Amino acid sequence: MRKVSGLLKLIKRSPFEKDIKEIVGFWPKDTALYRLALRHSSAYPFRKKRGERNNERLEYLGDAVLDLVVAEALFYRFPTDDEGHLTKLRSALVSRNNLNKVADELGLPNKVVANLMGNQSESIYGDALEALIGACYLDHGLKKAQFFIMRAIVEPFISNEELLTSTLNYKSEVIEYFQSHKKAFRFEEVQRLGEQHNSTFIMGLYVDDALEARGEGTSKKKGEELAAKEYYHKYIVTNG
């Protein structure tokens, strides 16, 4: 009987509820919250004083929830990284560019209700994403909002090694370290693999003429960055 009841409930789900389930990963309880989250202020430009007409307040709430969840996730995921690195990662994760990109991948440009009349700005989709987070929080609580944030924003970012490395800029970190400690260093090609048009570069980081770290990348620059990352975690983090 329960299975039949559950099946009937699923059949009765509206297309909008199914869209929200696809986006956030769980069924909405109060669909009005999610409809509001996807309503830009331009949809009702002259009716702001008549109750909740747009997603601005939900965006405000979602922004705060996003900051909390991202900060906690980075704190536990990178236990040896200092405050500076964690701050850089958080800034990149919650940046307008990244949120706009995630919103686009989730299909929000096709879901947001707006009346932009040619003055389209991609930021409205990142704003709507934050408003959706606010809706998830009010509808289901912090755990579900956290699930959505981790699934859609945090995990795709921190699982991208190249994106992580470029965000943290380990090369600048180690150069600053060497300069402050008056150490001689250089990056040098150790080996090149593959064809000329499709090469893999193995770059070495030499400190006082000793090879201390290696990095492998599709360009010398990427190889140097990865060598710097290895040195950073091997020596700078360990020795403080």
Give the strand line-up of the largest sheet. Answer: 1-2-3
CATH structural architecture of the largest domain: Orthogonal Bundle
Average pLDDT: 88
Distance between the termini: 62 Å
Unreliable parts: none
Percent of residues in beta strands: 5-15%
CATH topology of the largest domain: Ribonuclease iii, N-terminal Endonuclease Domain, Chain A
Quaternary structure: single chain
Which class best fits the helix and strand makeup? Answer: mainly alpha
Using the alpha-carbon principal axes, give the shape: elongated
| Radius of gyration, in angstroms, nearest whole number | 23 Å
Number of H/I helices = 11
- The ordered string of helix (H) and strand (E) elements is HHHHHHHHHHEEEH
CATH domain class of the largest domain: Mainly Alpha
Can you tell me the number of structural domains?
2
Helix content: 55-70%
Characterise this structure:
With 240 residues, the protein is mainly α. It folds into two domains: 2-160, Ribonuclease III domain (Ribonuclease iii, N-terminal Endonuclease Domain, Chain A, Orthogonal Bundle); 169-239, Double Stranded RNA Binding Domain (2-Layer Sandwich), CATH 3.30.160. It has helices at 2-11, 15-24, 31-37, 56-77, 83-93, 96-105, 123-140, 142-158, 161-168, 170-180, 220-239; strands at residues 185-193, 200-207, 210-217. A three-stranded antiparallel sheet has the order 1-2-3. A hairpin with a 6-residue loop joins β1 and β2 (200-207). α4 crosses α7 (123-140) and α6 (96-105) packs across α7 (123-140). The longest helix has 22 residues, at 56-77. 30% of the residues are buried.
